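Possible regression after last week's pipeline update?

I re-ran a chain I had predicted before the update to compare outputs. Posting the input and the new output here so someone can diff against the archived version. Not blocking, just want to make sure nothing changed silently.
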Amino acid sequence: FGAPAARFDGNAQLSLPRPAEDNLSFVAVFATTSLASHSNWFQSPGVLGGEVAGGCGDFHFGINAGKPLFVAADNQITTGNAFANGLPHWMMATRVLSTGRDRLYVDGTQRSSALASAGLSLNCPLTVYLGCATESDGFWTGDLFEFVAYSKVLNDAERTILETYFAARHGTEPSRDLYEFGDTHRGDVAGIGRESDASVQDSAEGRGIVRISRPSALSDGDYLLWGTDLPDDYSLSTDVPPAYALRLRRVYARTITDGGGGDGVGLVSVRFRVGGLFLSPVPADFALLLDDDGLDFSDAVAHPLPGLYDSSVQSIEFEEVDLSQHRYFSLVVRP
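New output (post-update):
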C-alpha cells in the first residue's frame, strides 16, 4: 500500500519513555515472516519491551513464534494462531487497572483474555524499547508500520474506526466493511460512530486536516467514515461551480452506515484546518462543496451556511452539514 515502515532486522531497537502504565491500549500494525521464539517471555521477540527484573509492574508486547503476546506483571496471554505470513496485520493489547482484565486482539477480533494483578500499575520500566524485549535481548524481525499507545482502554466504536483506518492505509483485513472508498480515497481516513451509550466516538480528525463532530442523530450502529484521494496534495483546482474560482484539489469521500434508525448520523459539523496553506482567512472566501460523483465539481452544491473562521487554530468550520445526500466534498478557498 506504499505506507512507510520501520524495518527491524533482529538486531536493532528504539528506546522511548514508558507511554502508559494504568488503563492502557497498545496497538501495532506489523508484517513479519519470523517464527523466532523463546520459552521465557522476557527473552522472546518484543515489539514493545518493558521487562524489569525483580517481580514488579512490568510488561511485554511482542510476537513469539509468530503469535502475538501480551504480558502484564508476568501474566501472559497469546493467540492460538501465528500471524507471520508477511502480510500486514494489526494487534492490540488492552488492560483495565481496577480489574486487571487484559485482552489481546488481532485484526479486530479478540483472541485472548485473562484476569491478573488487579490494581497493579505497570510503572516499573522508565524506559521501554521498540523492537526488542530489553535493551539487549529479545530482538524482533519485521516491519512496523505504526505503533500507538493510549492511556485508556479503547471502546468498541473507537476500535472499529481504528481498524477501518488501518485497512485503508496499510491493507489489513477489516472485520466489518464500513468504508467503501479504501481503494480510491484511503488517505487520512477517520470516523465517528456509536455501538452503545458506553461506546461512542462523536468527534474525530485522525491524521488529516478535516474534523467531523457534533452529529445530531448518532445512535447505536451508526458510523460515518471519510478519507481523501490526495492526502499530501495542497494544490488548488479550478473545477468549481461558476460562483467560485478555486478549491482544494483533494476530494473527500464518505460512507455512512445506518444502525437501523433510518437517519444515519444526522447533521454534523465539518472543520478544515487551513493553517500554513497561505489562504485568505476571510470566512466569505470559503465554501463547502458537496458532490455526487467526485469527478466533476462544476455542478456541486454549496452548503448554505457560511463557515466560521477560528484564528486560534486557523480553521474554517461549517455547521449543520447534511452529508447523507452527497458522497463527496471539497473546500472552496481563496489564496
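Follow-up from reviewer: compared with the archived run. The chain has a mean pLDDT of 96. Marking as no regression found.
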